[in-house]
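Can't attach files on this board, so I'm pasting raw text. These are the components:
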Amino acid sequence: MIRKLLSGDLPNSRILTTLLLLVLLGLLLTPFIFPGTRAMNVAAKICVFIVLAASYDLLLGYTGIVSFAHTMFFGIGAYGVGIAMSRFEPGWLPLLLGVLAAMLTALVLALLLGLLSLRVRTIFFAMMSLALASFFVILASQFSDYTGGEDGLTFKLPELLSPGTQFLDEPWLGVDWNGKTLAYYIVFCGSAALFLLCLRVVNSPFGRVLQAIRENDFRVAAIGFNPVTYRTVGNCLAALLACLAGALYAIWLRYVGPDTVLSFDIMIDVLLIVVIGGMGSMYGAAIGAAIFVIAQNYLQDGMKLLHGGLEGVPVVANFFHPDRWLLWLGVLFVLSVYFLPTGIVGKLRQRRK
Amino acid sequence: MSDTLLQLQAVHTHIGPYHILQGVDLHVPRGRLTMLLGRNGAGKSTTLRTIMGLWQASAGELTLEGASIKGMNTADIALRGIGYVPENMGIFSDLSVRENMLLAARSGPIDRQRLEWIFGLFPALRQFWEKPAGKLSGGQKQMVAIARAIIEKRKLYMFDEPSKGLAPVMVNSMIAALRELKQQGATILLVEQNLAVAHALGDTVAVMDSGRVIHHGSMAELGADAGLQHRLLGLSVGAH
Amino acid sequence: MQTLNNKLSQFIIPLVMLAGLILVPNLPTWITLTVAGLAMGMMIFIMASGLTLVFGLMDVMNFGHGVFIAIGAFVATSVLLSMAGWMQAENAALNLLAIGIAMAAAALVAGLLGWAFERIIIRPVYGQHLKQILITTGGLIIAEQLIHAIWGPEQIALPRPASLRGAWIFGDVAIEKFRVIAVVLGLLIFIAMWLVLNRSKIGLLVRAGVENPEMVETLGYKIRRLFVGVFVVGSALAGLGGVLWGLYQETVSATMGAQLMVLIFIVIIIGGLGSVGGCFAGALLIGLTANYVGFLAPKVALGANILLMVLILLWRPQGLFPVASR
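---
Top answer:
Structure tokens for the assembled complex are below.
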């Protein structure tokens, strides 16, 4: 049954399986094991980023397309929820409509992007996606009536998901069961479902054609599959998945803003996660996302210590300043592209074979 | 041997997973025109490209004037004294004819006398001297390609199907040009499918099939033996 | 039809200027805007020309090109801040000399960095576009962080020298002094590039190499050396452009390179990948459009350039002045 759930894509490595189980259980039982708002925030972010990274890997690792517009779709999903909940009375219908509207927008933009780079030559597509994403960020800040501009939008969710709604008067098993807990489990289940969907896609005949196109699109065309169609569908799928991830994130945060859901910093983060974790490996994206978000939140404390220790040494100290963690990640990223094309997870899986 | 300018021994070339040259043995005698014949896909172009270093030989020996050129990069091999005209001519369309020739003149400015000689062979070049090479007709481009290869004296000239797609009158100009080149004592390796050209110019001939040289001999001998022609090439000299 | 398109491309800059004249009712304003647009365009041309030439010649798209812009700007900032005396003086000669030294330093450092970048980051991934994009983006991330580590996390102010502040006033028309310098410099660089490309053997090699690098090698030239040379020059130019841009904005920040990349991509796509002339036209077009639209409809201004790119791509998918390529 597990096989069917994972679409036949078993981890095949004891280390990997252990890590995956750790992540899964950790996320599932966060409210129980890690009390406190900060932990839940980190956990929710991990759930969302797993989907974001997995859907990006669909593009990068499996289809061989580099896109800089992925966070744009993420932002569209988030803003879909945010705008719907701000303009209308918070209820399930507007929420659903907001998500659907966001998905439609994402689909249209993904198609447009594909159309403009019909040659879908890797380089051209990457440049166009960058331009499109920039354009969107500009739009979001210009139409501040709708989007709240630089400040973003804070909004309420339907009653059931509100933190004020108490399900049990007394905490049970150490957890305060209220709307926020429900929201967390919706995010968790939603992310899990979307991740399993990603696994399904990449292990299907469609996914295999995508991988073939990545290797040699002439040959694939010769067999009779149209690479452009497959790439476009892949692109749209990834966009929709990112969009849904964004919607989930907005439901958790009850806030959307350009820095939180649209910024290029997030795009870079996702890029780093997928490459270091493993291009062409869903599990790599998942583990990578988990480690990244945890590190982002807790590693900096560790770096502060290191930085403190190097106080005396002039320039070198700056290299270990907690804000500079991206430097080391960047180096790891470049090294991964050279030496670990299948990422850390790929290396783990290879060992088994 | 000092009268062999270029020698290939048991040369293999792999292109990706494909094993194109499967043990080519070839010697090109100095001062003669050697024809490289064979059906489509026999490996003739690949042989020339391997000599030029555009594909690296995976096994075997290649020597030019006794010195090994295996593993050298293309520019260095060219500087050893080879003038090469590839199958697709390699004309720079955005550059004028003059600029194309200028690039080919490695040792400095173009030799006026040599240029006049070339204009004599291909009068149209003088007319199109300053025009972008891309605006020329197919036949004229071929002239530019050949002129580029012969603008300076080279130890070895290699031409890959120079008559392909040319009108008969152009082919005659080309044959005349190569004949004059021969008279100057040049060593030429010529790949052709047009047997009339082969018969008009060839001294020695090597026939390729499936990545190997299957026959080596004089042109006269091949021309006289219709049976041999038919076996090797599937056609006869008279057919063109 | 094709010749009509070609002719139209050649006249597009004057056409846009004319359109601006019609839409902007006020002649003095139009002059100010046009000079501003040309200045902006020139600076972007200087920064972008290296990128497009490298792509045309080496089939390498350096997503980290912004690195050289930023480094050039920061090096110049350090130099100029240490020459504060010369910069504050009302003496035009001293000011220009100071800027000249800063630009030379910026170009030198950027060029050296370019040499290292080509060697270490780009050479291993020739021909692999996917990896190129990833690695050069990684290079950009690392460089940005290095700038933060060396120069600190804040933006640094870079005031213009005393004699270049303010504007010349002719009747109703105000023309910023610095912008004129930018236009003059840009023109000089463009003319120099044009001369090298069209009147020298190296330029010949570059133009031939853009079309068919393999054939250039069979003619006996080591194309690898040409690649490195062009890459280094392109990086140095980017550094130079960075200095000008820093003085134009009067501030430098570590993210300036990455931010300019979008604009630069738009310019080289509009102009035609690999074409220096196209890059020049595209840059001026973008500069003029940004300024005209910025005046007429400020809300749309930032997005106008992207819309322009889309329109041009729909008309001419290969860009305004496509080059013959492999």
